[in-house]
From TrEMBL:
The lineage of its organism: Bacteria, Pseudomonadati, Pseudomonadota, Gammaproteobacteria, Pseudomonadales. GO terms for molecular function: enoyl-CoA hydratase activity. The keyword Disulfide bond does not apply. This is Enoyl-CoA hydratase. It comes from the Bacteria. Keywords: Isomerase, Lyase, Membrane, Peroxisome, Transmembrane, Transmembrane helix. The chain crosses the membrane at residues 95-119. InterPro entries: ClpP/crotonase-like_dom_sf, ECH/Chromodomain_protein, Enoyl-CoA_hydra/iso, Enoyl-CoA_hydra_C.
Length: 249
């Protein structure tokens, strides 16, 4: 079991902390597996009211571990990354994210499925999938054009442009932008703890109602994106780009 995911229970709150600082919290298969198991257990645990996902006050995550992508690419829906994202998308309990520093690739995509997202103003978010020979994943090709309009979403998904925490809050990707990483983590924890004072069933029914209208379409898009993404991982374009990152040294 990996210790790069720290679990902490505090009353009705489960915190999942990404803790692999030497690699900017890049997510390995073992980390996804741990996140998936912890989220599923939290969802079924009547003592847990909310989940907080965070990194450090310096870095959220550099996204998928690129060496893993080359050595052990996800091949099917049972791979750890799919299990993690499925447990996040389907989680009945509120999920809060705290983002400081870099949030790259799936580090940004996962925020689209969290309920409350707090970011530091100078956080650096980016989905550089095309730049890596890949394509959008886990519903971002559906959610972002709806949220931002086609033209702005295309800057993020077709050019792979980065954006700040301040922009994420202005565009509705984040709930609010805070002054720095420490303030962001504190605000997210405070918000997540508030769910312990609220009626759990009322919160869960409300979340379900908010998510219900687009659920089937989202499921289909995630499936299509998954097929394209896993195919693209084997493409010469992706292999060249991913190998290029690793050989930068
Ligand atoms: N996968 C594997 N290793 C990664 C990684 C990733 N996604 N992101 C960072 N690392 C490693 C670096 O190779 C480096 O390792 P080393 O010290 O053994 O050389 C270490 O983490 C620190 O990264 P570095 O690039 O020096 O930090 P930085 O502060 O200059 O930049 C980022 C941080 C996140 C902006 C930069 O690391 C980056 O762009 N990473 C790639 C992110 C990416 O494309 N992810 C999408 C995958 S779909």
């Amino acid at each position: 079991m990996t210790d790069a995911i720290e679990l902490q229970r505090e009353g009705g709150l489960l915190t999942l902390r990404l803790n692999r600082p030497d690699k900017k919290n890049a997510l390995t298969r073992a980390m996804y597996a741990r996140l998936a198991d912890a989220l599923s257990e939290a969802d079924g645990d009547p003592e847990i009211n909310a989940v907080l996902i965070c990194g450090s006050s310096e870095c959220f995550t550099a996204g998928n571990d690129i060496a893993d992508f080359l050595q052990q690419p996800p091949r099917d829906l049972d791979s750890p990354v799919f299990r993690f994202m499925r447990s996040l998308v389907q989680c009945r309990k509120p999920v809060v994210a705290a983002v400081a520093g870099a949030a790259v690739g799936i580090g940004t995509t996962m925020l689209l499925h969290c309920d409350l997202v707090y970011v530091s103003r100078d956080a650096r978010l980016r989905m550089p999938f095309v730049n890596l020979g890949l394509c959008p994943e886990f519903g971002s090709s559906l959610i972002l054009p709806r949220l931002l309009g086609q033209a702005k979403a295309a800057e993020l998904l077709l050019l792979g442009e980065g954006f700040s925490g301040e922009q994420a809050a202005a565009w509705g990707i984040a709930s609010a932008a805070l002054g720095d990483g420490v303030a962001t983590l504190a605000k997210a924890r405070e918000a997540a703890l508030r769910f312990s004072q609220l009626a759990p069933e009322a919160v869960q029914v409300s979340k379900r109602l908010m998510k219900a209208p687009g659920r089937e379409q989202l499921r289909q898009v995630i499936e299509q994106e998954g097929v394209e993404f896993t195919r693209r991982l084997q493409s010469p374009e992706a292999i060249a780009a991913l190998s290029g990152f690793l050989s930068k040294g």
